[in-house]
UniProtKB/TrEMBL annotation:
Protein's name according to its UniProt entry: Uncharacterized protein
One Pfam family cited in the UniProt record for this chain: CarbopepD_reg_2
The organism of origin for this protein: Roseivirga seohaensis
Length: 303
C-alpha cells in the first residue's frame, strides 16, 4: 500500500511538472521571423518590433531577421520609417514572414501647393514679393490665400487675398466662389486702403465677379463705399498651358478703381504675370515670375 502511495505521489509530481513546463512553454516562446518590403521583397533592416502588451522590444538584423520572446496570443507591432505600421498577433510557434507596405505618396497635382513670385513695378520702380498657398479640395471647394509685399523702402505696398472657389454650390452646375481682398498702399504723397468682398458666379463662358467694399483715401478722410464688377476667365492652350485673365472695376463714388491681370501658366506650377492697377493718381504695372512647390500628401497604406 505504501508503495502504491509513493508511486501515486511520483505520478502526481511528474504530471504537475509536465503541466507547468507545458504551460510555461505555451506562455513564453521565442518567435523568429523576417521583415520585408511588400513592393520589392527586399529585407528591411533595423525595423522596430515591440510586444503590444509588454515593454519587450527588438530590431531586425541587417538581413531583416528577428527573434523576440513573447507569450502566445500577444501582438507584435512593427514600425519602420516610410512604411505603414503593422500589428501581427502571435497564434503559433512558427516562423513569421512579415511584409510592410510603404506609404502611398499622393500627387496633389493642381491642388495643394505653395507659390512664390518675385516682381517689379515698372511704373513706380520697386520690387515686390508674393507668397500664395492653395489648399487641397475640401468637399467641393478649395482655399487660396496670397500676400503681395513691397521689398524696398520706397513704398509701403500690401495686397492680400483670401479666395474660396465653389464655396456656394447648387446642383446641378451652378457654383459661386468668394474672395476677400485687403489693400494698403502708401507711395510718395499717395495713400489708399480698401477692403472688398466679392462673389464669383461661374457662368457658361467666364466667371463673374460682383461685390462691395469700403475704402479710405487720405485726400478724403471719410470712408467711401464701392461696388465691384468684373470677370475672370482661364483660357487653356493645349494640355499643360493656361492663360488666366482677370478684369474688374470698383466704383468708389465718383472715382473708379481699375484692376487687370494677365498670366501665363505651365502645368500650373510655373507662371509669368503682368498686372495693372489704376486709382486716381496712382498707377501700378507689375511684372512677375514665379514657381510652385507641390505639397505631397502621404496616405497610410492599409493592410
Amino acid at each position: 500500500m505504501m508503495a502504491v502511495n509513493k508511486l501515486m505521489k511520483k505520478l502526481v509530481y511528474i504530471i504537475t511538472l509536465l503541466l507547468l513546463i507545458t504551460g510555461y512553454s505555451k506562455a513564453q516562446m521565442v518567435i523568429k521571423g523576417k521583415v520585408m518590403a511588400s513592393d520589392d521583397g527586399l529585407p528591411l533592416r533595423f525595423v522596430s518590433i515591440q510586444a503590444k502588451e509588454t515593454d519587450k522590444k527588438t530590431l531586425t538584423t541587417i538581413d531583416g531577421d528577428f527573434e523576440i520572446e513573447v507569450e502566445l496570443g500577444q501582438t507584435l507591432i512593427f514600425k519602420f520609417v516610410g512604411f505603414a505600421e503593422r500589428e501581427v498577433q502571435i497564434t503559433d510557434d512558427k516562423f513569421y514572414l512579415v511584409e510592410l507596405k510603404p506609404y502611398i505618396i499622393q500627387d496633389d497635382f493642381g491642388q495643394s501647393r505653395i507659390h512664390f513670385d518675385a516682381g517689379y513695378d515698372l511704373k513706380n520702380r520697386f520690387v515686390i514679393g508674393k507668397l500664395s498657398y492653395v489648399s487641397d479640395q475640401i468637399g467641393w471647394f478649395s482655399i487660396r490665400t496670397s500676400v503681395v509685399k513691397n521689398l524696398t523702402s520706397q513704398a509701403d505696398f500690401l495686397d492680400s487675398k483670401i479666395e474660396a472657389s465653389n464655396l456656394i454650390y447648387s446642383y446641378p452646375n451652378i457654383s459661386i466662389g468668394t474672395t476677400f481682398r485687403y489693400q494698403n498702399i502708401s507711395f510718395q504723397d499717395y495713400s489708399f486702403k480698401n477692403s472688398t468682398f466679392s462673389f464669383q458666379p461661374k457662368l457658361r463662358y467666364f466667371d463673374g465677379n460682383i461685390g462691395f467694399g469700403v475704402s479710405n483715401h487720405d485726400l478724403n478722410s471719410k470712408k467711401s463705399f464701392g461696388i465691384l464688377l468684373g470677370a475672370n476667365k482661364e483660357i487653356r492652350l493645349g494640355k499643360y498651358h493656361y492663360i488666366p485673365i482677370e478684369v474688374s472695376s470698383t466704383f468708389w463714388g465718383k472715382n473708379v478703381e481699375f484692376n487687370a491681370s494677365l498670366k501665363y501658366r505651365v502645368l500650373r506650377y510655373f507662371e509669368l504675370g503682368l498686372s495693372y492697377q489704376h486709382y486716381r493718381s496712382f498707377d501700378s504695372l507689375i511684372a512677375t515670375v514665379g514657381s510652385s512647390i507641390r505639397l505631397w500628401k502621404r496616405a497610410k497604406n492599409e493592410y
